[in-house]
Amino acid sequence: MIGMQQQTSAILNISKEIQEKLSSLLLRTGEATEFSYGDAAANERMPIARATSETAGRVNVMYPALPSHHTEAFFHIRDFAKFQKEPDKVLGSIRVSDDLVLCGYSMKMEVVLHYHDNGYVVSLYFMLCQSSTDSQLKWPFRIPFTCRFVHPTNSTKDILCKTVRPSDVSRVERRLGQYCRPTTTANPNVLCKPTAVVTKLEKGGYISRDSLCVGIKLHPEMLF
User: Fold this and answer.
1) 223 located within any domain
2) Is there a contact between 192 and 214 (Cβ–Cβ < 8 Å)?
3) Which of 20, 160, 184, 194 has its CA 20 to 30 A from that of 122?
4) TRAF1-6 MATH domain location, by residue (predicted)?
């Protein structure tokens, strides 16, 4: 009997600890918008100092293989100071996200840092990837999309790239197969302009905690 009482007491204590931890987690979730890391090295989430009220309705937190109704995802480039020291004179320094699933399509974001006109610039690229659900999707890919450099505390300062409309690509671009159903791991990448000068990102506060956040948003409503 004493043994059973001790076991019951231990279970109640564990239950209490779990409830306390859950309460703390829910409180933090309500205080800050969380962004995901898209790189394989870090699947944990990083809270950004934006109030939920400021970003409500604007941000869908995105993780690999989420349901197809999501339209927006974010990718963090951590250790940015180290990233700046890596550029190859020809290829530059490259970071690629894990697969992101938006509107049912699997894709990656590619961030390239390279030297140009006496300074370093960051370019954003988009690429479609193979997935197990490709046979259920419409091809070629037609959904307009916009990439952006995300400001960590003020969404009005986000640097938006020009919205890309796959249906408007030229014949030359169409031959590259960037928006066709992928027959390899990933299609050729698509550059999203304009690029951003690193010194501007630093002075503007876009690099926070040695991390740069970039994002991509699909616009299915623009199809019609």
Assistant:
1) no
2) no
3) 184
4) 103-214
pLDDT tens digits for range 41-82:
333 333 344 433 333 333 333 333 344 578 999 999 999 999
Which residues, including other chains, have CB under 8 Å from residue 38's CB and lie 6 or more apart? 62, 64, 73, 74, 75, 76, 97, 98, 100, 108, 109
Under DSSP, the state recorded for 184 is S
Give the residue from 34, 63, 92 where a domain finishes.
63
Cβ-count burial of 38 within 10 angstroms (0-12 exposed, 13-18 middle, 19+ buried)?
buried
Is 117 found in the same domain as 160? yes
Range of the domain at 153: 72-218
- Indicate yes or no: pTM above 0.85: no
Amino acid code (one letter) for 101: V
In angstroms, the Cα distances linking 19 to 8, 16, 24, 110 are 17, 5, 9, 40
Cis peptide before 140 (omega within 30 of 0): yes
Asked whether residue 44 falls in the same domain as residue 118, the answer is no
Residues 129 and 197 in one domain: yes
